């Protein structure tokens, strides 16, 4: 009896995820790699390998003969935005600006378009979310009425390309890429296919004609940029616009920048008259009071390369609940819980029957561990009702053993503190060079820091 032999035929991957590139032989609703829904698309027929040389757009040149003028940045005349971009906008460069609704993206880009018009250029603002009349009302409010600023409300890609041909602008603002669709591809506006097609067309126009282009992008509920991940790879610069709608502070960060650094942060004051650059934003995060109060401590955080002085406030009150409240604003909840545990175990302060509230001034968010010491001192001050000196700053990371760990940029942080009138600082040991004129107390653990702060308060 002859045994039957079975052969296994390799299945060619016919579907691919638009987000991460994962491939499968059959369609599925959810990607098996990145777990994204609705991103698996059918692949086209395989193409033959290219073996014949084709025409070139421009000949290859020795590197010392390449013209660098095309890569020169042109200032937007908005100082904080130029800081983040690395000098300004590059002709042919495409910038993706992403942020939550209502944070001020459209207002900022409208001001950029108006500044380009004032400097002798031609700007084209393409709105897919608002009517032309609504955009004009905003322009009147932020003083962006310029005759060389052209406005169109369009959601069709072919019509947008027609406006570009007729206006011949130096700067294009597209607000937003998720609202525009092309009749050449299937899918609803904002879908993976449509976003890829619209972004690709705008990038081709920008590169071929040397037009600086700013594109607004939506974000998902977790803060990431909506649409295919390839969108971030196609553009030259990705800016993240951050801010709490209940606060006036707005921050612009460079997530990706082919023309400049990615460690700079731009700060703006968002008011009724538009966005105003803040070269010295620390004043928004400090409270001016005639006498020091308990539960307040100042720390120095670093955003990009910029040190910012921030006040941390705490309130400790007797609780009548079985589970006392723990609430914070602008700080990481898990780090607050850790600091409370260390204070109770290493500092001898009991919080089991007390409500604890911790917040930052001005709506700023403190992400780095360097603010741990200031949070701990503010909570200890609130618990004992003993004010800390108003001229004191505290910088350091608190460990679970109660020890204080060194942080980066202490000299830069303390120099900024000294410039703003703070004369004393509590920092971990061996923190490096100290600026002249600053009285520094180096401590090794949280108990020593609390004792040093109490000694300064009694002077």
From TrEMBL:
Pfam families for the chain: AAA_25, ChlI, Zn_ribbon_LapB
PROSITE patterns (UniProt xref): RECA_2 (PS50162)
Q: What keyword terms does UniProt attach to this protein?
A: ATP-binding, DNA damage, DNA repair, DNA-binding, Hydrolase, Metal-binding, Nucleotide-binding, Stress response, Zinc, Zinc-finger
Query: Could you list the residue ranges forming a coiled coil in this record?
Result: none
Q: What Gene3D superfamilies would the database entry show?
A: 3.30.230.10, P-loop containing nucleotide triphosphate hydrolases
InterPro entries in alphabetical order: AAA+_ATPase, DNA_repair_RadA, P-loop_NTPase, RecA_ATP-bd, Ribosomal_Su5_D2-typ_SF, Ribsml_uS5_D2-typ_fold_subgr, Rubredoxin_2
Name of the protein: DNA repair protein RadA
Keyword NADP set for record: no
Its domain comment says:
The middle region has homology to RecA with ATPase motifs including the RadA KNRFG motif, while the C-terminus is homologous to Lon protease.
Span of the annotated motif RadA KNRFG motif: 256-260
Q: Which domain of life is it from?
A: Bacteria
Q: Does the keyword ATP-binding apply?
A: yes
Known function? DNA-dependent ATPase involved in processing of recombination intermediates, plays a role in repairing DNA breaks. Stimulates the branch migration of RecA-mediated strand transfer reactions, allowing the 3' invading strand to extend heteroduplex DNA faster. Binds ssDNA in the presence of ADP but not other nucleotides, has ATPase activity that is stimulated by ssDNA and various branched DNA structures, but inhibited by SSB. Does not have RecA's homology-searching function.
Q: Which organism is it from?
A: Tenggerimyces flavus
RecA family profile domain location is 70-219
- Family, per the entry? Belongs to the RecA family. RadA subfamily.
Q: Write out the ranges of the annotated region (Lon-protease-like).
A: 355-459
Where do the annotations place ATP binding? 99-106
